[in-house]
Write a structure and sequence with these properties.
The longest helix is centred in the middle third of the chain and has 20 residues, at about 130-150. Strand 3 and strand 4 (about 30-35) form a beta hairpin. With about 220 residues, this protein is an alpha+beta fold. The radius of gyration is 33 Å and the shape is rod-shaped. The chain folds into 3 domains: about 5-55; about 70-160, Tyrosine recombinase, N-terminal domain (DNA polymerase, domain 1), CATH 1.10.150; about 170-185 and about 200-215, no CATH class. The chain is built from 7 helices and 4 strands.
Length: about 220
Amino acid sequence: MGTWGQITRFQLKPKTWRARAKFRSFDGKIRRYEAWGASGPKAEAALIHKLTLLVPINEDEIGPEMQLRELSRIWWAEFEDLGRAANTSKRYRELLDTHILPGTGELTIREANVNSLDRFLKTIRTNSGSTTAKMCKSILSGMLGLATRHGAISANPLRDVAKIPIVTKEVRALTLEEVIALRKGVYAWQQPTGRPNGLHEKGLFRIESVVSAAA
C-alpha cells in the first residue's frame, strides 16, 4: 500500500503531455492518477510529486532498518498504555536502560536475529543471572512482536532463542538434630536483652513456637 505502478506518458497535442499511473491507497483500493506537463518528463515529474503527497509522512514508521533504540521508544509508549503495575514498569525501564539498550540498541530490526539475541541473552544470564535474562527476553519479545505486527520482519526471533533455565534450590525439611539446634539457638537469643517492653523476646517467642509445633 502507498505505492504506484508503471507510469505511462502520452502526448495529447504539441507541448501538452499526460502521465498516468495506478496507485494502491491505504484502504487497499487501486485508483488511477494523472498529471500534465509541457513534455513527457515534466508530466511524469508532476505525477510523481502528486503521488508522493498521497503517502503520509510517519517518523515512527517501523521498518527493517529502524534501530532497536527507536523501536523501544514506540514499544514503551504502548506498554505504558496497558496500565501495568508501577513496580513492573519501573523494573522494565531499569532493564531497558541498564541492559537492553546498551547491549542491543544500535542493532537494526533486521540485524536483531536469533543468533545475535541468543548471544546477548546468554551474556546477561552469565553476568546478571537467569531471572534478569528472562525478563530481558520478555521485553525484547514484546518489542520485536511489535515489529512483526508492522511487517518489519516476518517472524519474532525471540521464539527461537535458547530457553533460559532457572536454577531452583531443593526444598527439604529440617532433620531432628537441626530442629533441636534451632530451638536451642532461638531460646538463647530469646533471653532478656535489656530492651524496653520485652519486644525482642515476645517476637521471637512466636517464631520459636511455630518451630516447636513443626518438630
